[in-house]
Amino acid sequence: MTRARDLGIPLAGTPGPLNAITDVPGLTVGFATVIKGDSARTGVTVIHPRGQFNHAPVFAGTFAFNGNGEMTGAAWVEEGGLLEGPIGLTNTHSVGIVRDTIIHWQAAQDSFFQKWSCPVVAETADGWLNDMNGFHVEPEHVLSALDSAKGGSLPEGNIGGGTGMICYEFKGGTGTASCKLPEKLGGWTVGALVQANFGRRHQLTIAGVPVGQHLTEDAPFTNGENPLAEQGSLIVVLATDAPLLPHQLKRIARRATLGMARTGSLGGNGSGDIFLAFSTANSSAGRGDENGLATLQALSNDKIDPLFYASVYATEEAILNAMVSAETMTGKDGITVKALPHEDVMDLLKRYGRG
């Protein structure tokens, strides 16, 4: 699998050992990919914040840059500041089955934090390559993703919930990256996992180079022209081991917007750009002693800037990794979406002095 740094794209920040969201200790990710016949090109991605065998909640925050989309459970994250179970990512019309199956799984695991569950499940629309009205994601796919989740290196591109997604009119999908701070700045890690399904071709910017304005061929929506409109959606999940409180994690989630913007998108009316950030620090999050008191750590606000930058850089790189790793796909109605042409991109970066 080829990734953005493998091509030599100059990117900011220092990645962790895996350059993935799984650089945050304990976190696991699972996938189920559904490719059947001519029209099923979809799947589900699951993130266990502390791993599938540790059900303790984590502090979390959300931010909707543009809300033409769905993230179930976000109201309770906003209200209570807690994320209390696995996160699911899938296509727009499969949110319900993923949510319900996660609840069934939690019941079987006896892992409810409260007596009920409000799972976080987010979506982007893969209806160009996938028949969303075919409802191809089934409970067994969700259970497979939940139970097979692991740490270590992760596949990217046409995998899991990102299987049928399109980004800047090239094949998009699932991408991940991480940014690790130096020890003098705390040594914390920020990991990102994205489901990238947004952007028009003319917007695509890589390392500051207007790549999309040159690579105008095979742009299925715009034919490479600039319609002054946006299309598609982006889900970003940011994880960190830095000890942050919910209001600080909401600020981290907002920074995903800047990572998105660094790749060229400005957002639009039709774009569902919804971001979630959580911290695996503070193992007693949401819990307390017999008097309801918990001992917590929290980073002071005047030390948080490096984590803001890390969040931006990890988001940007995860989006590019989704595109670089994705492969050309033919789906519903015989539609083909081309993969990002690696050699052409690097030629352009060299021409602009960035390769």
Short description:
The protein is of the alpha+beta class and 355 residues long. The protein is 25% helix and 24% strand.
How would you characterize this protein structure?
The chain is α+β, with helices and mostly antiparallel strands. The protein has one domain (4-285, 303-345): 4-Layer Sandwich (L-amino peptidase D-ALA esterase/amidase). The chain is built from eight helices and 15 strands. Strand 10 and strand 11 (189-198) form a beta hairpin. The radius of gyration is 19 Å and the shape is globular. The model has no long low-confidence stretch (mean pLDDT 96).
Brief descriptors of the model:
L-amino peptidase D-ALA esterase/amidase; five-stranded mixed sheet; 15 strands; 24% strand
Number of domains: 1
Give me the number of helical elements: 8
What is the CATH level 1 assignment?
Alpha Beta
Q: What is the H/E string?
A: HEEEEHEEHEHEEEEHEHEHEEH
Structural class: alpha+beta
Provide the spatial order of strands within the biggest beta sheet: 5-3-13-12-11-10
The mean pLDDT is 96
Low-confidence stretches: none
**Which architecture per CATH?**
4-Layer Sandwich
**Radius of gyration, in angstroms, nearest whole number:** 19 Å
Taken as a percent bin, the fraction of beta residues is 15-25%
